[in-house]
Design brief:
Blueprint lengths: L10 H7 L4 H15 L7 H4 L18 H4 L2 H10 L3 H6 L3 H15 L4 H10 L7 H13 L1
Helix pairs in contact: 2-5, 2-7
Length: about 140
């Protein structure tokens, strides 16, 4: 169908065919659940009045049970808090958040949750902030 060999990597094929990997589907579902049910969670700025970098993140409760830490509530919070800032601001519009998240996951071809954390923390995602892209385009036109 795609003309690739049996030992070839499928990372590029997932992106070309528009198919999310299994870990990407899991991340996508958890983040959509978290954004849809944001009223169930507390934001850090609601808990204290200090202006910190993490004030827009959801508060993660302190828990000791590994079973709870791997559950959808806690894992959704953890994944949401690692998202790039521009995706967090888009989360107020569910449709645009869904499209941007899917684009991020398709372009990254994530094979594990740890790879997702590393991609978001190190800024390795190819999806740029749309506002920055527009400003760079305008600046290039002016020069």
């Amino acid at each position: 169908m795609t003309g690739c060999g049996p030992r070839d990597s499928c990372r590029k094929l997932f992106a070309e065919l528009g198919i999310l990997t299994l870990p990407s589907q899991y991340i996508f579902s958890l983040l959509l659940f978290t954004v849809k049910n944001r009223k169930l969670f507390h934001v850090n700025q609601d808990l204290h009045s200090l202006g910190t970098r993490q004030q827009q993140n959801f508060h993660q409760p302190l828990v000791n049970l590994k079973k709870y830490q791997l559950g959808p509530y806690y894992m959704g919070l953890k994944l949401y808090n690692t998202l790039p800032t521009f995706l967090k601001t888009e989360s107020h519009s569910f449709a645009s958040f869904r499209l941007s998240l899917k684009k991020l996951l398709l372009e990254s071809s994530i094979y594990s949750i740890d790879e997702f954390y590393n991609t978001c923390k190190l800024g390795k995602h190819k999806l740029a902030n749309p506002y920055t892209t527009i400003h760079l385009f305008i600046a290039a036109e002016c020069h």
